């Protein structure tokens, strides 16, 4: 017999049920003594447990609640955000509808904004609203900023629209949050609404946010309209340096360096702070105006404005492109004399500069003295070793990077594979590529396959290079076929060279490099005559075919610098016709030929041969 358990019942419910089902012994006679004793044991009431009095909830005294609020504010000011939230939960549990002081709420808002957790932000805002706390404009602005920091745009929009009074700071916070959340055009729409209400009283800081929105959106038209608003406000004439820097940055990132320099020149002397100089230098460096950047840097040094880490990092790129290594060393020495330590960006830029100019020992020295390194720092040094043929040192740094627990990215793998390629380290390159294929975070891309193909090709392993193209889990790119074509040319493998050239011509028919490489391969392999015979033979066949469809050569064409007796013979073998013939013999029958440069030097070639050739299919 299977035992079945019923759901448990409450003791009181069970006792009442048993009492209801109990029958007095006088009305019903027991059938047997055994059954009577069983019924008595079943109907026997359970002893009643003593009733416990409920524990009364202690209402926190004002002194204890004030102590909790003070502790919350102290924890928040000290950066102990989690502890502050724990105390807030305790205060909320003991006094769920008791409003806290305004400084406590503002401290909690700052904590939620720092942690950027929507759940905590919602809890703080719910308690402020549920307790009946009266919020002024400042408190609403803080809650608005908290919502935007936590990416709660819907809640922020609700708070913004529900505010009975908005200040210029309110508009600026809402617009800035829209820009930070990737909605710059929504921020510009808000500014248009504000400008319609307040006009020139919108406030200069709000205009700065609007200019930043135009910069993020890449809208030069909106930026120029905002420049007009600045002019109407006369904001640039009152020494406001932020507006000038914002306009300068906007014009620079929108590609108008000349207008950025015009804004810079129009700034008052007190407005040209270090940020303005750095912005203009960065604009020149961004658009490749290296000479102008160097001239402006010299003016900055004469003006007495001391450079900082950003200035140094910007100018290092300029010095590198101009080959001014001594200028870079002088600038570095100037920073050391002024006691300005370089950050990781400046040190990495210095490592990259020394690597590009062959000062590998100096680059390694700067790298070892860096107090803090990032992955870009490692990549710069590994790439520097690779470019200068020091593959063993590059692999050593790569192994050290792995040993220190730093995860390499696709740039790191490309740098070390290039180092193996330049140094001919085939086995090491195979191991690194295999390690990359087993990496769960970084998988080989087309550029890594192209680098490995060139590595195998340079060492004569053409079969392995070709197999890598065939086995790649992606569509072969022009760089991959180009690496095989170059390797085939070096090792004079006509079959693979022709195959790679056909693939390249199908992908990039407008580039003549593949034609030149293939022709040079014929010449270097001693088959120049064969190449010439094939080209001229195919051209003769082509001319015969187009004559059959109605081509008639022009007889009155005069070409300069050619004897009249040679005019008729040379015209048959003009370069345009030879190019078409070479394209026909060096590509497969299904490959299309595209004419990208057709100079009207010979009317017969331009108007007759080329159009007729296009009509023909390749045999």
UniProtKB/TrEMBL annotation:
SUPFAM superfamilies: TPR-like (SSF48452). GO terms for biological process: RNA modification. It comes from the Eukaryota. Residues 24-40 have a biased composition (Low complexity). Pfam families: DYW_deaminase (PF14432), PPR (PF01535), PPR_2 (PF13041). PPR repeats lie at residues 273-307, 308-342, 343-373, 374-408. Keywords: Repeat, Transit peptide. Residues 550-609 form the DYW domain. Residues 24-60 are annotated as: Disordered. InterPro entries: DYW_dom, PPR_At4g14850-like_plant, PPR_rpt, TPR-like_helical_dom_sf. One of its GO terms (molecular function) is RNA binding. PANTHER family: PENTATRICOPEPTIDE REPEAT SUPERFAMILY PROTEIN (PTHR47926:SF434), PENTATRICOPEPTIDE REPEAT-CONTAINING PROTEIN (PTHR47926). Belongs to the PPR family. PCMP-H subfamily. This is DYW domain-containing protein. The lineage of its organism: Eukaryota, Viridiplantae, Streptophyta, Embryophyta, Tracheophyta.
């Amino acid at each position: 017999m299977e035992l079945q358990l019923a759901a448990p019942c409450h003791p009181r419910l069970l006792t009442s049920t048993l009492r209801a089902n109990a029958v007095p012994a006088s009305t019903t006679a027991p059938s047997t003594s055994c059954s009577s004793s069983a019924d008595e044991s079943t109907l026997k009431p359970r002893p009643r447990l003593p009733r416990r009095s409920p524990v009364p909830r202690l209402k926190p005294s004002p002194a204890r609640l004030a102590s909790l609020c003070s502790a919350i504010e102290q924890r928040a000011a000290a950066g102990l955000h989690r502890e502050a939230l724990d105390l807030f939960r305790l205060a909320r549990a003991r006094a769920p509808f008791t409003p806290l002081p305004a400084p406590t709420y503002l401290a909690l808002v700052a904590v939620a904004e720092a942690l950027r957790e929507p759940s905590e932000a919602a809890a703080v805002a719910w308690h402020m609203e549920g307790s009946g706390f009266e919020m002024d404009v400042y408190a609403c602005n803080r809650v608005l900023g908290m919502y935007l920091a936590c990416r709660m745009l819907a809640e922020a929009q609700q708070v913004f629209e529900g505010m009975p009074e908005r200040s210029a700071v309110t508009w600026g916070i809402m617009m800035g949050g829209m820009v930070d959340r990737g909605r710059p055009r929504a921020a510009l729409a808000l500014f248009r609404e504000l400008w319609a209400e307040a006009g020139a009283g919108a406030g200069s800081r709000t205009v700065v946010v609007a200019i930043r929105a135009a910069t993020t959106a890449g809208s030069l038209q909106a930026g120029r309209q905002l420049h007009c608003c600045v002019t109407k406000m006369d904001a640039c004439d009152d020494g406001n340096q932020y507006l000038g820097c914002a306009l300068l940055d906007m014009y620079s990132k929108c590609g108008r360096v000349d207008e950025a320099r015009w804004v810079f020149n129009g700034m008052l002397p007190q407005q040209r702070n270090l940020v303005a100089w750095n912005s203009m230098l960065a604009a020149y460096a961004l658009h490749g105006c290296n000479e102008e950047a160097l001239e402006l840097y010299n003016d900055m040094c004469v003006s007495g404005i001391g450079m900082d880490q950003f200035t140094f990092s910007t100018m290092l790129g300029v010095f590198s492109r101009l080959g001014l290594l001594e200028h870079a060393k002088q600038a570095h020495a100037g920073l050391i004399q002024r006691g300005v330590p370089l950050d990781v960006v400046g040190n990495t830029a210095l490592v990259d500069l020394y690597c590009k100019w062959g000062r590998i020992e100096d680059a390694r020295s700067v790298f070892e003295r860096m107090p803090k390194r990032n992955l870009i720092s490692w990549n710069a040094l590994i790439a520097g070793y690779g470019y200068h043929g020091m593959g063993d040192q590059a692999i050593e740094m790569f192994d050290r990077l792995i040993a220190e627990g730093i995860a390499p990215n696709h740039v790191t793998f490309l740098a070390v594979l290039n180092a193996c390629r330049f140094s001919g380290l085939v086995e090491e390159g195979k191991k690194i590529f295999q390690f990359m294929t087993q990496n769960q975070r970084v998988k080989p891309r087309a550029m890594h396959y192209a680098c490995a193909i060139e590595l195998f090709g340079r060492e004569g392993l053409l079969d392995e290079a070709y197999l890598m193209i065939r086995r790649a889990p992606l569509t072969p790119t022009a760089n991959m076929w180009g690496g095989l074509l170059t390797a085939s040319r070096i090792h004079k493998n006509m079959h693979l060279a022709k195959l790679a050239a056909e693939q390249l011509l199908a992908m990039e028919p407008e580039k003549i490099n593949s034609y030149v490489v293939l022709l040079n391969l014929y010449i270097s392999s001693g088959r120049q005559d064969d190449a010439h015979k094939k080209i001229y033979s195919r051209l003769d066949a082509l001319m015969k075919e187009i004559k059959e469809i109605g081509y008639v050569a022009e007889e009155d064409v005069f070409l300069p610098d050619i004897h009249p007796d040679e005019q008729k013979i040379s015209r048959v073998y003009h370069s345009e016709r030879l190019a078409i013939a070479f394209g026909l013999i060096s590509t497969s029958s299904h490959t299309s030929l595209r004419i990208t440069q057709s100079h009207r030097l010979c009317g017969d070639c331009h108007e007759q041969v080329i159009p007729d050739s296009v009509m023909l299919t390749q045999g």
